[in-house]
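To: structure subgroup
Subject: Chain for Friday's discussion

All,

I'm putting the inputs and outputs inline so they're searchable in the archive.
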Amino acid sequence: MSPAALPYVLLLGLMFGSTLLVSRFSLGQFAPTTYTALRLALSAAAFALLYAVGSARGRGPRWPGRAALRGSDLLRDGIVLGIFGTAVPMVAYVASLQYQSAGITALLLTTAPAITVLFAQFLLPDERLTARAALGIGLALGGAALLVVRGESGLAGVAGSPIGYGMVIGAILIDSYMIVYTRRHCRLYDTVDLSSIRTLTAVLVVTPLSLLLVGFDLSAVTATGVAALVYAAAAGTFGGLMLFLWVNQRFGATAASLTSYVLPVVAAVGGVLFLGEQITPVMAAGMALIIAGIALLNRKEPVALEVEA
């Protein structure tokens, strides 16, 4: 990873980690799909405002015209990312918090770089799997396996649920492939245009699903719940997705996936301080394995120098 990407990776990890915390808090007031739909709707409204301001000022972001959409694959790729890179993973990640702590979900999410590297090996010509990277992948996945085998939930007196694990792992597989897809197909698009189409698509997918499954009951929502929802929309959806896409386009798929490097620290420590969650010895061991694996993935291979005789 380029050193220039590090500040953005750290910021994204903080944004996504804190969003996991407020999302778990919000599940006491919202159904998972309702919460996700509202987050996405607020984010879509922010994009609409951004375009409106740009049009009024005569400079800044403007919605791409029909000719621009017809002349590129922007609309197609935005829809694909909206469904599989946003709607499906977001619902799964939020719903998993009904069964486990934010710390456990974050630890499992931290394996995303390892899975992304595996996908990139087969799908990206400029990504090469080395022995060191293979060892890193093995350590990271071994740490996740330890958590699952031991049934860790991060909640006192609650056993880990296969449903919660399955939601996160399935979403990671889809999300990791979408990171590689973005690297292959979306490097030349405007970040705001791609993000807005992606978010609008996700709204149009999740909102009808939520209405069909659980209706639209907001009777348990408090002012604190509204504030948490707005923060999650701003940090984890609107700003987070745009910055994530920009990092992916600018620095590559592997660098973008390393945003999850900061997740376990933010989510686990924040969960203990604010949500009454716990960090067990097994969680600490799993975290150590995962972080060691990601550290190996993040190290550059030594460059062989040719010496002229």
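Points worth raising on Friday:
The CA atoms of residues 134 and 297 lie 8 Å apart.
The two ends are 33 Å apart (CA to CA).

D.
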